[in-house]
Amino acid sequence: MTAGQPAVNRLVSTIDRLSREMDEVRATADGRALVELAKGVLVERLRCGPAQAAEQLALLAEQAGITQLTLAVEIINEVSGDTLTAVPDEPSRTTAVRLRTAESGALGADDTQAVAQSLFTHALAPLGASAVAIWSAGSDASLTLAGHAGFEPGEASRWHYVPPGVSTPARRALVERDAVWIVDLDESGLPSIGPGLPGRVAVPAGTGGRIAGVLEICWPAPLAPQSLSVHKQVEALAQLCAATLDSTAAPNLARAPSELVDLADGLLDPALVLGPEISPDGTIADFRVHHVNRGFVDLAGRPRSAIAGKSLLEAYPLASAEGNLFDKIEHVHATGESFRAERMTLAALIDEVPLTVAASVSITRHGALVLVVWRAQDETARLANLLQHAQRLGRVGGFEEERHSGRIMWNSQLYALYGLAPGTDPVPLAEIAAHAHPDDVLSLNGFVHNVLRDRQQASTAFRLQRPDGVTRHVRVIAEPVLDSQGELLAVRGAYQDVSAQHWTEVALSATQDQLAITEQESLERNTLTLQLQQVIMPPTHPTIDAFGLRVAVRYRPAAQEELVGGDWYDAVVLPTKQILVSVGDITGHGIKGATGMVVLRNALRGLAATGAGPAQLLTWLNLVAHHLSDNIIATAICGLYDPHTRVLRWARAGHLPPVLIRDGDAELLPMLRGVLLGALAEPSYEEGQLQLEPGDTLLLYTDGLVERRDVPLDDCLDHLCEAARTPASNLDELLDHLLAHGESNTDDDTCVVGVQLP
C-alpha cells in the first residue's frame, strides 16, 4: 500500500457517506413536500390557517395510529383524482406513500436525471428493480438517454444515444405504443442498456396521444409474471415521466409553431401543419389544421381559407378510410417516427362524390405538431418515370439524331451500353459499323442504308465492340422522321442489350443437344438392360415336372422400361436329386439391378451344388453380396425339396414369407429370422421345414405382386391369401389368376413361383 492510499480511502469513504446523506435529505425533503401539500388541502377545506392545519394533521395522524406522511398521502389521494395510486386490490399505505414520494421527488427535480433517481429510490427499488432508464424520443424516432439510475459506471455513456432503426425494448415500446415485458433480455435477442440485467419492461411515456419517451425498468434476474397492481404502478410512473419530459421540452415547443410555419411556407409542395385534438379520455379524436402553406393546392380545388382552422376529418372526411392517412398521421404524432410513401391514394369529397388523387406523401413530427406534405403525381411525369424504369430494366438505350443540325441525344442507358462516360460525343448512326464486329459490318451497312437512304424503319442485330474490350450482343431499331414533303428531319431509335438472351439461347441449344445425346444413351441402355433381363428372366418358364413335384413360373417386367429391375427366380434339379427353388429382389433399377441379379442367381446355383442347406446357402450368398460385388443389397428366399421325404427346407433373407395353399385355404408361412443380403458382414439365417402333402401348393413371390403405396403391407398380404384361395384347375391357371388380379401399384417387376405336389 502506498503512502497516499489511506488518504484516498478516507476520501472515498467521505464521498460515499455524503452521497447517502444527500439521498436521505432528498427523501426527507420529498416527504416534507407531501406533508406541506396535505396541510394546504386542510387549509382550503377547513378554512383555517397553516398552524391550525398542522395541528389538525398531527391530531388526525395520532388518532389513526399512522405517521403524518402516511396521512398526508391519503389526503392527497382523496383530492387528487389521478391514477397514480388507483391500482387494483386497493394498494397498501406503504405502496401509496412510495408512489406519492416518488411523484413529489420527480415534480421537484431540476432535470430528468433527478427524476430517474427519485423513481428508482422511492418506487422501483422496493419492487426489486435494480436499474431504471428514461429515454427521450426525438422527432426522427431516435432515443436519447435523458435519465438513469442503478447502472454500472460507463454504461450510460455507451447508451447515450440510440439512432433510428435500431431495435431495442424501448424502440419496440415506442413503435408499438404499448408496454413490452421481457422475461430474459438474452433470449429476446434485443440489445439494450445494462445487458447483465435480464428482466425488464419498457413502457411508452406519453400524454395527449403523443409519446415523449420511454421508461425502461430492469431487474437482476429473469422476470417472473407480475401482478396487475405492478402493471398499473409502472404505467402510472411512465405518465409521470411523460409530464417531466414534456416540461423539459416546453421551451422548444413554444418556438416550434413559428419555425414550423416558416418551414412549411418555404416548401413548393402543398403542406399542412396539424395539431392534435385530445378527447376527454386522453386519446386523439382529430387533428386541427393550424396552418396551410403558400404552395397549397387543395385536392378538391378549394381555397386555402376553406381548409385553415378546420379539423382534418372535417376538411377531408375520407382521410380515415381511403389509404388510412389519418392512422399514418396519428402514428407519426405518437412515436415521432416519420412516414414517407412514393405513391399513396388521397381522397376528397366534391358534392358527395369522392375524388381520388395519387400522390407521394411525407409526414413528420415537430414537437407537438405534425407536418403533412404531398405531391400529386402528374400523369405525364409518372409515365415518363415508368418508361425510364422500363428502359433500365430492359437494358434499352434510346437516341435521336437531327439531320440538319447534326445534334444527337442519348439517354444514360445508351452511354452505359457503349461503355462511354456521360457527356462523351455520341456515335452517329452512320458510323455504327465502326464499333461492330467485322463479321457484322455488311448487315449493318444494309441497315443504315434502309434508314438513311431509303427512309424506312429497319432493325438488325450485331456484336458491339466497346472501347474497354467488352463485346455485347445488341439489337438496334430505328425509324426516320419525315416532313410533309418526305424530307428526312430526324432519326429516332433504340438499342437493346440482348447479351443475356443470346447466351441463354446458346446455353439452351447446347443443353438441348446434350439432352438429346443423353436421351439416346438412356434409350440404348434401357434397351440393352431389357434384352439382358428377357434373356435371363423370360416372362414364362417351362413347367418343371420332376420326382412328382411340379414347378411353374410367371415373370412380369416393370411397366416402364427405365425401371427395369432386379427381380430373379430359379428352379433347377441339383446333382443331389434335390430341387432348388428360389426368388430374389435386388435394390435399384437398370443395368446395376440387372447385373446384380445375374451375379446372385448364378452364385446361388453354384453354391447349391455343394449340397449345403438353405440357411448355409444364404450365408454364403451374403458373402458374395457384401464382399465380392459392388455393394449389392437384396432380399431372397431359398428352398430345397427332397423328393424322398417330401420335405421342403427353406430360409429367407429379408424377403416376404411364402404362401401355403392346403385344402382350399391359404396362409403365410412363419417369418423366419434373416436380414437382407449384403446388409451385414456375418449374419445368421434361421432354417425352417415344411412337410408337403398331396395337393399342397407353395407360392414364392416378389413384392411387385402385392405392395401398394397407400395400403399397409399386412393388408396387401391378406389380399394375396384371399386371391390364392380361388379354385383353379391347374398350377398355370392359378399363377395367371394371381398376376391378373394383383393390386400392386409400385410399377415394379413381379415374379411368382408356384410349387405343387399333385
UniProtKB/TrEMBL annotation:
InterPro entries: ANTAR, Bact_Sigma-Reg, PAS, PAS-assoc_C, PAS-like_dom_sf, PAS_fold_3, PPM-type-like_dom_sf, PPM-type_phosphatase-like_dom. It comes from Lentzea pudingi. The lineage of its organism: Bacteria, Bacillati, Actinomycetota, Actinomycetes, Pseudonocardiales. CDD domains: PAS. Pfam families: ANTAR, PAS_3, SpoIIE. It comes from the Bacteria. Gene3D superfamilies: 2.10.70.100, PAS domain, PPM-type phosphatase domain, Winged helix-like DNA-binding domain superfamily/Winged helix DNA-binding domain. This is Transcription antitermination regulator. Residues 458-510 form the PAC domain. Keywords: Hydrolase.
